[in-house]
Amino acid sequence: MSSKLTRQGLCAENTVEVIRVMHPVLFDVTIPFTDTRILIYSVFFAITCALMLGIYLGTRAAEKEGLPVQEALNMTFWGLISLILGARLYAFFENPAFYYAHPIRFLKLWEGSLATYGGAVGGVAGCVLYLWIKRLPIYRFLDVYVPYGFLGLGIIRVGDFLNGTAFGKTSNLPWAVSFPKGSFAYQYHLNHGWIRSDALSSLPVHPTQLYSAIGCLVAAGLLLYINKRRSFDGQPFLLGALGYIVVRFLADFLRDDLQRTLPLGLASTQWVSLVLFLPVVCVLAMKWRMRGKEVAT
Known about the structure:
Distance between the termini: 72 Å
Radius of gyration: 21 Å
Strand content: 5-15%
Shape: globular
Largest sheet: 2 strands, antiparallel
Number of helices: 10
Oligomer: single chain
Mean pLDDT: 87
Number of strands: 4
């Protein structure tokens, strides 16, 4: 049941556990009395659950915080539109040749290809723009919603794992996973000559999707705690943003699905992290200093 092909001592094995956990199509529903099938993709299902849960919990938290519920819902609507647009545009600029050749794929949201970083930046930008236009307290709204944003991102990463996307580099750690034949990791290893065409699975790789999912769930819990004890408006959001920027930069070194054609051999997501790092640190430091002056006086 195993291939003797190795790369740095790694063995590609086809295990029952791996086949069971990877489900690109989560549900395959046939409409009664017809031949019509409806495929529910794991990534799209995870994104839908993440958005619905995040909006519901965030809006409830906003109401408890004394923020206007209707304005919170309006903000999430425009934030959602901006999130989808940002995620899709980021994916387009990552691989423009593909979308020029298959323009209709730009609209097929259910097939994935929604870049997380583009979605996060786009979603926040849309929310901030709406709140600014309506002259609402920007940081108070963002503080309330940011923990549930991380919760949603954790759910999406589970969807990535089920779909086999965002896979990690080869690893010999006990918790490394192999993806079955036909998966993205399998095709990547085959193209690089690390496995033969008759191999039943990819080489073992870091489950980077699960690393991210666990990290996001931990971040959501910490931010809920910080939000209850925040020293100033914006503290939970800015700390969450800074944490994501730093962790994402480091975590992407473990991923093998990212293009590294930019300077220093970094992925585009890592360059985005570098660009965002200094502004977020400066705003956070400024807010903390202003809070210190208020306490001193």
